Amino acid sequence: MSRRLRLNAFTMNVVSHIVQGQWTRPDTRQRDYTSLEPWVELAKLLEKGRFDAIFFADVIGAYDVYNGNRDAAVRRAVQFPVNDPSALIPALGLVTEHLGLAFTLSILQEHPFSFARRASTLDHYTRGRVGWNIVTSYLENAANNLGYRGLPLHDTRYDRGDEYLDVVYKLWEGSWEDDAVLADTERGVYADPAKVHEIDHRGEYYDVAGPHLSEPSPQRTPVLFQAGSSERGREFAARHAEATFISARNIRGARANVDDLHRRLVLAGRRPDDLLVFQGLTVITAATEGEARRKEREVQEHLSDEGTFAVVSGWLGTDLSAVDPDAPVGDLRTNAQQGIVKSLAEAAPDKTWTFRDLIFSIANRRIVGTPEHVADELERWHVDGGIDGVNLTYTTTPGSFEDFIDGVVPVLQDRGVVQREYHEGTFREKLFDGRVGPRLADTHPGTAYRRKAVVA
Ligand SMILES: Cc1cc2nc3c(=O)[nH]c(=O)nc-3n(C[C@H](O)[C@H](O)[C@H](O)COP(=O)(O)O)c2cc1C
């Protein structure tokens, strides 16, 4: 398979993630999110469908931008309540063998020293199947929950992110030498003290002595995902990420975004294929076109407008109750997610995008139809848009994933577009089809912190 399409299931440890209002339906298990069973069953299903990963979004604050309060978000369960996604990883690792297990953690949320240990621990328990989605947060309430007294400025958050990554690279890649662990029962020596090193990081945001508390895990550094696509976000992706999520409005926008990322990767001294680009898409499929359209109507009937406005207001950092829907978005300035505005110009540079268009494009970025039609469309995104993978959003769970796995996956497999079997090894080896080993590729800046590199 030359350039296969990768599949991620996009989910969140919540009642309602992206498509709002669907939790009220009898045919979804979203309300069961506080039990382990639906998650365990979903992971097994995804592995049966040869998905690359289950991917958990996360936020650490309430959506309180719409109407200037959190009432709509609380009422409609808009990513609230939200449980910790990383707590699910060991259970999902135990019931699967190959599925990648990726979760989100904001660099504002936790000190890099304790996070590095948590990630290493999870990478041990899953035998190297962990991925980390590095985000910088966009909700004021999240920052206020963590003692920042307001959301730090957009680009400053990424600056902090750069230093956060430097700290964790030092811990994961540089603190323990490969042969530090001896586990020599004869001599009673577990590890060689000469091969376990402090990191002595002194920076603008963090001072960390080290050594790292965990011994090296299979991947050392988990597979690094990222999801910001502002100017600064793309620069950050080109430096650190091995996979990035984009939210292009159409195929033209995806191509522009992908080309821009490839250009930035080369400038950062990496190869274009060092970064896999995943597009977020919702698929509604059934055996016949008519049945798929019926399912779409069902989604529309349950869609919560208030929930949609609450979530998009949070992403944009702009209260949509106070905006004329027919006003042009223009070059809306926001301290929240800047990549959304950028994606509009890339999708249709000559169009005057209104807020109504923007909300519609978010709520309706769907592929609806028979498995053959969906496969055709995904191939267009893949070939013409240049994406490497899809981040599949659900309307019902596990129903959306079941429909996709039963209907679309076999068609894509017959066309040689998606994998039939998993590659051996860690999540990183599987994702890159063995082109990269269990650890960071040599072109990745994190490798500069490896002991040999530091000593040389
Ligand atoms: C598809 C997608 C998924 C995202 N998922 C999350 C998430 O789960 N948690 C979060 O805090 N931010 C998430 N973000 C936000 C970004 O990661 C980023 O930290 C921030 O909003 C700034 O983005 P920008 O560079 O586009 O301005 C997501 C963004 C996109 C496009």
Automatic annotation (TrEMBL):
InterPro entries: Diverse_substr_monoxygenases, Luciferase-like_dom, Luciferase-like_sf, NTA_MOA
Keyword Nucleotide-binding listed: no
Keyword entries, A-Z: Flavoprotein, FMN, Monooxygenase, Oxidoreductase
A GO molecular-function annotation: oxidoreductase activity, acting on paired donors, with incorporation or reduction of molecular oxygen
Annotated binding of FMN, by residue: D58, T104, H154, Y158, S229, S230
Signal peptide from the UniProt entry: none
Keyword Oxidoreductase part of the UniProt annotation: yes
Domain Luciferase-like intervals: 24-383
Family listed: Belongs to the NtaA/SnaA/DszA monooxygenase family.
Protein's recorded name: LLM class flavin-dependent oxidoreductase
Originating species: Solirubrobacter phytolaccae
